[in-house]
Amino acid sequence: MDLTKEGMSLDDIDKIVHDYIVADDAYPSAIDFMHFPKSVCTTVNDQVSHGVPNSYVLKDGDTVNIDIVCFKDGHHGDNSGMVMIGDVHPEIRKLSEVTRQSMFLAIEMCKPGVKYSQIGTTITDYAHAHGYEVNEEFGGHGIAHHLHIPPLVHHHKAFNACHDVMQPGMAFTIEPILMMQPVGRGYVQWRDGWAYQLPNNPSA
Predict the structure, then answer these.
(1) pLDDT confidence of residue 202
(2) How far is it, in rounded angstroms, from Cα 141 to Cα 144?
(3) Distance between CA atoms of 198 and 45, rounded to whole angstroms?
(4) pLDDT one-digit tens code per residue, 68-123
């Protein structure tokens, strides 16, 4: 992510990630996962998730979330980070910071015997305290020898009816998406069949 800068295309990022993973004798798990066409997800600005790298060139003020999954030594790993390009609006920087902190707060409370529903409660309470909403459409997931396995990890406490508890040896992702205003289920899916974004953007 340190190499990402203004003037790069999303395809440039995809190549960097692909080459780095392969050079370490690993495999970019995203390729052909449910027919995903690239090695990494690059989700830009008002996209919500699962952006597919393309020829779009990053410019001053953009944000891009780089979501990387790879397979090495029999297990998958999953990680993402938000990159700020140049002079990003302070409100966007704050949103990103609160989102990141909500994730760390949820990680801190994870231990054997804790209900998975506490993840959503922790994230939602922190988000609401800062005036943000939590995306309800996308959640975390178990990860190990397969990329997506149970449990489904909800980030919103609207789904806290789950009474399953964390057990030693489990591995799962926590990847909240916070928003400045409620959207409900009014997301727009791009014609590529992958990227979702907030409504009212004609580029979709």
Answers:
(1) 43
(2) 10
(3) 10
(4) 999 999 999 999 999 999 999 999 999 999 999 999 999 999 999 999 999 999 99
CA dist 200 and 204 (Å) reads 9
Whole-angstrom distance, CA of residue 82 vs CA of residue 165: 30
100, 84 contact by CB (below 8 A): no
Closest CA to 120 of 108, 136, 132: 136
- Assign 127 a pLDDT band (cuts: 50, 70, 90): very high
Residue 11 is predicted with a pLDDT of 97
Angle 117-129/90-108 helices, nearest 10 degrees?
A: 150
The answer to whether the beta carbons of residues 41 and 51 sit under 8 Å apart is yes
| pLDDT range class, residue 188, cuts 50, 70, 90 | confident
CA proximity to 44, closest of 20, 61, 31? 61
Domains of the chain: 1-88 (3.90.230.10), 89-184 (3.90.230.10)
> What single string gives the DSSP state of each residue in 109-127?
T--TT-BTHHHHHHHHHHH
List the structure tokens of 14.
């995809």
